[in-house]
Amino acid sequence: MEINFVKPALPGSGTVVLVIFESQGLGELGQTLDRAAGGQLTRAMTAAEFTGKSDDMLMIQAPAWFDRVLLVGFGPLDKAKPTIAEAAGGRIYALLGAVKATSATVVLDMPKDAPAGLNLAADLAVGALLRSYRFDKYRTVQKPGQKPTLVELTIATLHPNAARSSFGRAKAVADAVFFTRDLVSEPANMLYPESFAERVRERLTALGVTVEILGESKLAKLGMGALLGVGQGSERETQLVVMSYNGAPKVKNKRPIAFVGKGVTFDTGGISLKPGAGMEDMKWDMAGAGAVAGLIAALAGRKAKVNAVGVIALVENMPDGKAQRPGDIVKSMSGQTIEVLNTDAEGRLALADALWYTVDRFKPQAMIDLATLTGAVIIALGSEFAGMFANDDVLAEQLLAAGTESGEKLWRLPMADAYDKQIDTDAADMKNISDGRGAGSAIGAVFLKRFVKDTRWAHLDIAGVAWAKKDTATVPKGATAFGVRLLDRFVADVFEH
Ligand code: BES
Ligand code: MN
Ligand code: ZN
To answer: Are residues 134 and 198 in the same domain?
Structure first.
C-alpha cells in the first residue's frame, strides 16, 4: 500500500473518507462535499445520529461525483493524541477493505479552532499501515475476495510536509514491526535457531548493524550450561545472536542499552511435556527474541542516536533420548548451579545465560528483557498489559510512560525477596520452579534477577500480548510485535536528546 500526503482538496472521483471530530460537525471540505451532494451528508448524519464518537461510522453511497463517502468518527478533539489517531487510521483501513476500495482519500476535516500544530495525519497513516499487515506467504490459493484491495491511500492535511517527514521515521519502525511479525508468525519447521539467526543477520547487516552468531561449541566454551541444557533434546543447534547498533559513536558514556530476548523457537515443554491441545501456540515462544530483533532494526532504520545491543537466545525445547530430565542440575555461565525440576520452565534457563553474558560483556546502562515466560501472567493481566518487573523505580516509570504513549501497555508486578526464597533448593544454588502454584510470573522474575548483578534491569513478561486472538484497530489477529514500538518510544524518550 502506497501512502501519500496532500493539501486539503476533494478528489475528482472514487472513495472519500471524512474524519469527523465529536460534536464538531462537518469541516470546510465536508461542507463543500455536502453542498455538492444536495445536503445528503447532513441528512444522513442526522438520521443516523452520527456525532463523531470514536466508534461512529456512516457510509453514503454515490453522493455527488463520488463512489462512496465514509464518515468516520474520531472522538473528542481535546482528547486527540497519537494512539487515538493511529486507532482511527486502523479502523479506516479495515473499513476500506470491507468495501473493497482500491484507493481512497482520507480528509482530516479539522475544525477551524483546532490547536495549531496538531498534526494527526502521520499517526493516522501509521495506524492504517500497521493494520494492513498480513502473513499469507504459505497460502497458495486465495479467492479474489480474500486478498486485500487497497493499494493507495491519500491523506489530505493542512501540513503535508510535516506529515511526510514524521511518517518517514515512523515507517522505519513499522517496517521493523512487520519484520518481527513475520518472524513470530513463522512455523517452527521453517524458523528454528539457525534459520532465525540467518534472517536476523541478513536483515540487520543491511541496516548497518553488526551481527555475531554464536553456535554450540562457542556457547559451551563460555560455560552456558543453562541455555545449552534447554536445546539438548533438539536436532537443531542452539544459537546466541548479538546485534550491536552504534548510533551515537561520539557519546561519552559508551555503555549501551541492552535488550535481551527469549527465543524458544518451539516449546514442547521437553520431558515435562505440555498437553497437546494448543501446543501449536508454542511456535511463538520466540516473540521476545523477535521483538528484540525488530527493535534493533527499528533503531537502525530510523537512525536513532543511541548505542544499543540486542542479545537473543535461540533454542528449541524438545523431548528425546538426549533431552534434559527433571532433576538434572546444570551449571550456568555465572557459575551458579540450577536444579531443573521442570523442563517446561525453560525460558528462564535460556535467559539466565543470555542476561549474564550481556551484563558481563557490555556492562549496559540499563537492560530490558522480553520473554513469553509464564502462563501465569495471562491469568493475571490477560492480553491488555504485559507484566513488568524492575529492580529500579526510575526505569520502571520510564517504561510505564512509554507503554502509555505507544499503546503497548505495561503493568508493574512485585519482585519481593519473599519470592526469591522460594527458589532455594538443597541440591543446587537454585531450582527453576517453586513448590507452590502461586505468583508464577514473580517466581520467573526473581529467578532472572539472580543473573543481572546490579544492572538497572526490567523484565517484560509478554506471554499474554505477543499473539492476538482477534483484530484490534492497529493489530490484525496473529503476531503483534509487542515491544518494538514500546521500546523504540522508550529509547527515543529517555536516551536520545
Ligand atoms: N512458554 C511458556 C509460557 C507460555 C504459556 C507462553 C502460554 C505463552 C502462552 C513457558 O515456557 C512455560 O511453559 N512456562 C510454564 C512455567 C511453569 C512450568 C513454572 C508455565 O507458565 O506453565
Ligand atoms: Mn515452557
Ligand atoms: Zn516457553
So the answer is: no
The band of 142, judged by pLDDT with boundaries at 50, 70 and 90, is confident
Where are the alpha helices (H) located in 263-375, listed in sequence order? 287-301, 347-362
Residues 130 and 92 in one domain: yes
The C-alpha angle with vertex 128 and arms to 127 and 131, in degrees rounded to 5, equals 85
How far, in Å, is the centroid of ligand 1 from the Cα of 124? 36
Residue nearest to atom 22 of ligand 1 (CA): 375
The full DSSP string for 449-462 is HTTSTT--EEEEE-
The residue from 93, 125, 158 where one domain ends is: 158
Q: What's the 78 CA to ligand 1 centre distance in angstroms?
A: 42
Residues 147, 228 within the same domain: no
Report which bound ligand comes closest to the CA of 372.
1
Q: Rounded distance, CA 133 to CA 437, Å?
A: 38
What CATH number should be reported for the domain holding residue 78? 3.40.220.10
Q: Which domain holds residue 484?
A: 171-494
Mean pLDDT on 178-194: 99
- Collapsed DSSP state (helix, strand, coil) of residue 189: coil
**Is the CB of 222 within 6 Å of ligand 1?**
no
CA distance 404 to 398: 10
CA of 406 to the centre of ligand 1 (A): 26
- Bridge pairing between strands 337-340 and 430-431: parallel
* 480 close to ligand 1 (CB < 6 Angstrom): no
Q: Report pLDDT for 146.
A: 84
Q: What whole-number percentage of the chain has pLDDT above 70?
A: 100
Q: Which whole number is the average pLDDT over 444-465?
A: 99
Distance CA 23, CA 25 (A): 6
pLDDT tens sequence across 339-373? 999 999 999 999 999 999 999 999 999 999 999 99
Do residues 140 and 188 both lie within one domain? no
Model confidence pTM above 0.70:
yes
Give the whole-angstrom CA distance, residue 293 versus residue 200: 7
- pLDDT-derived band at 119, boundaries 50, 70, 90: confident
**Whether the CB of 180 sits within 6 Å of ligand 1:** no
Choose the final residue of a domain: 97, 126, 158. Answer: 158
The pLDDT of residue 116 is 73
- What is the predicted pLDDT for the residue at 114? 79
Q: How many domains are contained in the chain?
A: 2
Q: Is the CB of 461 under 6 A from ligand 1?
A: no
Give a yes or no: residue 163 inside a domain: no
Distance from the alpha carbon of residue 461 to the mean position of ligand 2, in angstroms: 13
Residues 265 and 340 in one domain: yes
Catalytic residues: 274, 348
